[in-house]
Specification:
Length: about 400
């Protein structure tokens, strides 16, 4: 199966070191990106599907490093259905669970929490809401877990550990041995930081994070209450951990993290998440809103911000998405400045603080979403000129 996206005005690579690519055409074969370049220089013939990007911007499908799914496309936290599909309409093609914490009656004993993690990992491996890739099965660490429990979960397909601190494991000393076991068994580990998100749990400070030694400093700008600027500086300068900035956190410390990381040459460690569903709500455009914050108020070139939301996250979680490069899974978002923006391209709109209008989302080379039902309308919209036309919103 061959898909060609032609007529592209700007290709954003998802790679921080070379965030913009030369070319106007992307060729996808059997769900993977095969070639990127000028139409005259690539093999664009014989495609089953042809998309004309009409001079607009194509970026890798966005990643959300911090979602809280439960089962299917329903969240009990905000009594909302289709929230995953709704986020796909915000350009997010890969979502990573930071824990299935909103399951009513979530079991906290080792047998129950292992069962939940395994069911979530396997159920979401089988369930692709409108094609979106949901990586779930992120157990919340509770006292009493043993190395054998991590081995058992890993054998059953669990690759993540959810936010440390939401369960009974909330000190560095309790967390450290479990993090070591999780790492030995190939899992990627994140930790809650800052003030508690719900009554009954404790704040987690920089010292606890350093002692626990996870891969990811979860919502370094708070979920929702942030650590202090000093603690953020400690974690940026004193560790090599990934630094997760979220939408449902503190915008002031988001920008502080961005500046401190820039000065430390550590933008490659920044990843972007939504931290939704949460008390803040379901935020389908949360990743786009975070991109606009960083690009408009944070002095961050929009193509670099996009790399944080794509290639950086894919690297941290070892996923084969997030870059426009041969061999990568062909997950793409086509966008332009929204109608009425002072910007004339998607990147100019972000720099001006506006959210781009999405006119198509492609997953594994297949157009899944036409005009987004959630973004403002793109000034220029991509069009399928051969093959199956996806549904849209407006
Ligand atoms: Zn949290």
């Amino acid at each position: 199966m061959k898909t060609v996206i032609r007529g592209i005005g700007q290709i954003v690579s998802g790679q921080l070191g070379a965030p913009l690519l030369d070319g106007d055409t992307i060729v996808c074969v059997d769900g993977k990106i095969a070639q990127v370049g000028r139409e005259s220089a690539v093999d664009a013939g014989g495609a089953d599907t042809v998309i004309d990007a009409r001079g607009t911007t194509v970026a890798p499908g966005l990643l959300d490093s911090h979602v809280h799914p439960v089962f299917g496309d329903f969240t009990p936290r905000q009594r909302t259905i289709d929230f995953l599909d709704s986020e796909l309409h915000g350009g997010v093609t890969t979502m990573i669970s930071a824990g299935e914490v909103h399951l009513p009656g979530r079991p906290k004993d080792p047998v129950g929490l292992k069962a939940l993690a395994i069911v979530a990992a396997r159920a979401y491996a089988n369930f692709r809401p409108n094609g979106a890739k949901v990586h779930a099965g992120a157990p919340i660490l509770e006292l009493g877990l043993t190395e054998a429990d991590f081995a058992e979960m890993a054998r059953a397909g669990v690759t993540l550990v959810g936010e440390i601190g939401l369960g009974s494991v909330r000190t560095g000393r309790d967390a450290a041995p479990m993090v070591k076991w999780a790492k030995q068994h190939g899992m990627t580990v994140t930790i809650h930081t800052g003030g508690p998100s719900i009554a009954g749990s404790n704040p987690i400070d920089a010292e606890t994070v350093i002692e626990a030694d996870p891969h990811v400093v979860g919502h370094i700008n708070g979920g929702t209450t942030s650590m202090s600027p000093r603690e953020i500086e400690t974690l940026v300068g004193g560790t090599r951990m990934a630094l997760e900035i979220v939408q449902c956190g503190n915008p002031r410390t988001a920008l502080h993290t961005l500046r401190v990381a820039r000065d430390a040459g550590a933008w490659d460690r920044i990843i972007l998440g939504n931290d939704a569903p949460s008390g803040t709500g379901v935020v389908p455009l949360g990743i786009l809103r975070t991109l606009a914050l960083l690009a408009s108020l944070g002095d961050c070139p929009p193509e670099a911000a996009l790399a944080m939301a794509t290639g950086n996250t894919a690297r941290v979680y070892r996923l084969d998405v997030g870059l426009i490069a041969p061999g990568r899974e062909a997950d793409l978002v086509v966008m332009d400045a929204p109608v009425g923006s002072v910007g004339t391209t998607a990147l100019e709109a972000l720099r001006a603080g506006d959210l781009p209008g999405i006119s198509m989302v492609v997953i594994d080379g297949v157009p899944r979403v036409g005009r987004s039902r959630n973004t403002a309308p793109a000034a220029r919209a991509a069009e399928v000129t051969r093959g199956h036309v996806p549904g849209g919103g407006h």
